[in-house]
Hints:
Chain A is α/β, with parallel strands linked by helices. Chain A contains 6 helices and 6 strands. Chain B has 13 helices and 15 strands.
Amino acid sequence: MVERYEIRLSGAGGQGLVLAGVILSEAAAIFDDFYAVQTQSYGPEARGGASKAEVVIGTEPISYPKATQPDLLLALNQQSYDKYAGDTKKNGLVIIEADSVKPPASTDFRLVAIPIIDLARKKIGREVVVNMISLGIIQELTQIVNYESLEKAVLRRVPKGTEDINTRALKLGREAAKEFKEE
Amino acid sequence: MNTKRVRFVQGNEACALGAIDAGCNFFGGYPISPSSEIAEQLSALLPRHEGKFIQMEDEIGAMGAVIGAALAGAKSMTATSGPGFSLKQENLGMACMAEVPCVIVNVMRGGPSTGAPTSPAQADVLQARWGTHGDHPIIVTAPTTVQEIYHESIRAFNLAERFRNPVVLLLDEINGHMREKIELCDPAEIELWHRPKPPVDKNWERPYERNEEGVPLIPNFGTGSRFHVTGLDHGLTGFPTGDPKIRQALHHALIAKIEDNRPLILKNEAYMVDDAESLIIAYGSTARSARRAADILRKEGRKVGLFRPLTLFPTPEEDILRAAAGKKLIVVPEMNLGQYVLVLRRILGRDIPIIQVNRTDGDPITPDQIIAAVQGR
C-alpha cells in the first residue's frame, strides 16, 4: 500500500457508482484499517447524467479528498472515458466497459477492457450489479483491499434480500479479471 | 479506537449523530440538497431518542418551529442550504433578538439563487454573519473533516445553550457528502451545557435579567412563569419598550454576550505556522486542499503554514494577528469570490500582501492552485 492511491469511478447516474465508492472505501477504512475518504459528484437527475465517485486510500491521513491524477479509473461509458482518461497517472490503470467504450489505439496507461454489462446480463440476469462486478475486477487487479474485506463491506451496505446476487457479482468480477490477466 | 463506536459516515450523518449526542430533541426542517441527509438521519434517530422530527411546509415555517420548540425547552435545530438559509433569515433574527438557543446547519452549495444544487461552494460565509438585518449576535463555525463535523455539531448545541444564541454550523457539499471513518464519543464522557435557569421556578418576572456571562435567565415555556417574548426592543420583563436607555443597553448586551465570551467560543488550528514564511488561511473543506498544498510545499523545502479558523464568527482576531505576524505572504483560498478575505484584510491591514484563490465553478480548489499562488505563479 502506498501513501496515497486515487480511484475514480465514472459512468452514468443510476449505475451505482457512489455505492461502489462507499463499499470500496469502507472496506479499506473499516476492515483493512487504512485511511480512506470517499467523495462524489453528480448532477440533479435521479438517473442518467454523469456520475462520479472518488476514493482516496492510503497509509497516511488524507488531506485533499478528491482524485487529481487517478491511479485507477473505471469508465463505464464513452462520455466518462473521454472526460477523465486524460487525468490518469502515467502507468496508471484504466478499466473500461468493453461494449460501451471504444478503446484507443495507444495509451500511456494500462488499459483493461471487460464486457461488464454483458456479464451482468448473462451471468447474473440483472444489469443493476454492474457496480459489484466492477468492484470485483478492481480488487483482483489492484489488491488495494482484501477480497474478504470487500465482501464484508458489500454485505453491510446492500439492501436486505440482495446479498446473494451482489456477492455473486463481486465474485464474477474477480473471475473475469483473472481471466483477463491470463489472456 | 473503540471499534464499537467507529463509523464510516458522511459529514451530514456525522452532523446528525453529533446532534443526538448533544441531546438534540427537536428538528424542524424542509429538505434541500445537499443537506437532506441530515433531515433523513434525524427523522429516524429522533423518535428513538424521545425527540420530535417535523417536516414543515417550508423553510420559514421550519425556523419558526425551531424557535417554538427551543422556547419550550428543546434542544432544537434545522438544516438547510443556501436558498433555504435565505428564507430562514427573518426568523433567525427573531431568535437572536429573543435569545433563543438553536442550531442552524447550512450545507453550502452554489449560488446566488437556486445556483447549483449538487455542487460545493463556500459562498454563504458573510450571509451566515450578516444575513439577518440589524446588529445581531451570532456564532458561526466551519469544520473541515467528518470527525470534526461530529464534534462541532455537539459544540454548536453547547454554545447555543450556554449563550442562548443561534449557532450556524457551516458545512459544504464536499464535507457534507464526504465519507470518512470517525469515532463517536462515549456518551458518558461528553460535556453537555444547558441553558442557565432562572433563580425561581415560578413567577420569575425578569426573564431578560442576565447571569455573570451576560446570558438571560429565561424560563422554559410551560414551567410556571408567565413572560413575554418579542422581536421588538424589550426590557428585563420581555415586554416592548421605547425607553432609549433600555433599548441601548439591550443592543450592547446582545453583542457583548458573544464578544466578551470570545475565549469560551473561539476554536482554531495553527499547522506548521511558527517558522512559516508564507501562511495559508483556509476553513471548511478548502482547508483540506490547503493542508495538502502546505505538506507538498514543505517537502520541497518551502516554509509554509496553515491557519484554520473553525469559529469564523466571532472572529479570532488575536489568533489571526499572531499567526500572520512576520509572514511575507498570506494566501486565502475560498470557494467564493472573496468573502472571509474581507474580514482578514480588515484585521491584517495592508502591511502583508494577501493573495486570493477563488473558485465558483462547482469544482473544489485544488492543492495545485494554492501551491501556484504561494509560489507566485
